[in-house]
Specification:
3-stranded antiparallel sheet, elongated, 12 strands, 12 helices, alpha+beta, single chain
């Protein structure tokens, strides 16, 4: 990494390179903290207040918050996940040692799938207790009372709510489809267990939005491997055709698995596939899908396949009609 010139020239009594050591120490602190550090940390590294001002003026440092500095050479806005970590760390330093990420931001940090992509600006932070609503730009601040055992750290530096508490808080502010996607994702990734989910949902009793989340709990299924699978499953269920199985395995004559179906309707002998853009559209994936479908036709000739995409979710009547025809109801 190219380092900027030291803010002050070494004196004759200063060993060569010593003038760079405070800056090197500050850069090392920032590198461990996703590219940011606080003014006290910079001072502890040996930089004076004047040094910091000089580094601000020459563009080495940015200042997302008063008393918090970002090292521009360490930032990469083209990496949304990395920049989210940077933004949370900066907000944490600005809000003080009692603050931590929560809600939607913690869900993104844990990799729970189903929420809209992060907007690249606003983070949700928690500072428990009354009298702590201090305005910060690009921060949605919550004052939820959260037990210490419901918080943890990520990468050893970012404080955030644990997966269970994260899910609890996030479910209250989203719609049904998003809520079920989040529950499915948390279960699928083993962030929480099936046994933990119901107590987590019930623990929200008395909070705004808790009644509807209790109704959504039975819809969760950790076998769903993507938000698209979850949303297609919900659309099928709403149409009166809940799948009888998820991730249903089909075997050949030797007992080898030749296909795993996203959804399966046993009575109709129907496979349902949720086809998203991306991996399924790559040549290698298309070749694998063709081989799989050929194997299914050989070993399970009475099985049919229907495929649904993100676009089909905008026309639930189409999904209902496809399933009704496949089930012989029309």
């Amino acid at each position: 990494m190219d380092l900027p010139a030291p803010p002050t020239a070494p004196t004759s009594s200063t060993p060569p390179g010593d003038s760079k050591r405070p800056l090197l120490r500050a850069l090392m602190i920032a590198e461990r903290q996703h590219g940011v550090l606080s003014l006290p940390q910079a001072r502890d590294a040996g930089l004076s207040k004047n040094d910091v001002h000089t580094l601000r003026r020459n563009g080495t440092l940015g200042s997302p918050y008063i008393g918090v500095y970002s090292v521009r050479s360490l930032l990469d806005r083209s990496d949304p996940a990395g920049f989210l970590h940077t933004s949370v760390m900066a907000a944490q330093l600005a809000l003080g040692p009692r603050s931590f990420a929560g809600g939607r931001t913690a869900a993104h940090l844990w990799g729970m799938r189903g929420l809209p992509p992060w907007d690249g600006h606003t983070v949700h932070m928690v500072v428990p207790g009354p009298g702590t609503r201090r305005h910060r730009p690009r921060v949605t601040l919550h004052t939820w009372e959260i037990d210490p055992e419901e918080t943890t750290t990520l990468d050893g530096v970012i404080r955030l709510t644990d997966p269970g508490r994260t899910l609890r808080d996030t479910l209250l502010s989203v719609d049904r489809e998003t809520a079920v996607c989040l529950m499915d994702s948390a279960l699928n990734q083993a962030l929480i267990s099936e046994e933990e989910l119901t107590p987590l949902v019930l623990a929200n009793r008395g909070r705004k939005g808790s009644v509807r989340t209790r109704r959504w709990r039975p819809l969760a299924d950790g076998r769903a491997e993507s938000p698209l699978e979850t949303r297609v499953r919900l659309a099928c269920t709403d149409a009166g055709f809940p799948p009888t199985d998820l991730q249903h395995r089909f075997l050949d004559g030797t007992g080898r698995t030749i296909a795993v179906a996203d959804m399966w309707w046993a009575e109709s002998r129907l496979i349902g596939e949720a086809d998203g853009l991306g991996p399924h559209s790559l040549p290698q994936a298309l070749a694998r899908d063709r081989i799989r479908q050929n194997d299914l036709q050989v070993w399970h000739p009475n099985v049919r396949i229907v495929r649904f995409t993100w676009q089909d979710l905008y026309r639930p009547g189409y999904i209902a009609s496809v399933l009704a025809r496949a089930a012989g109801r029309v």
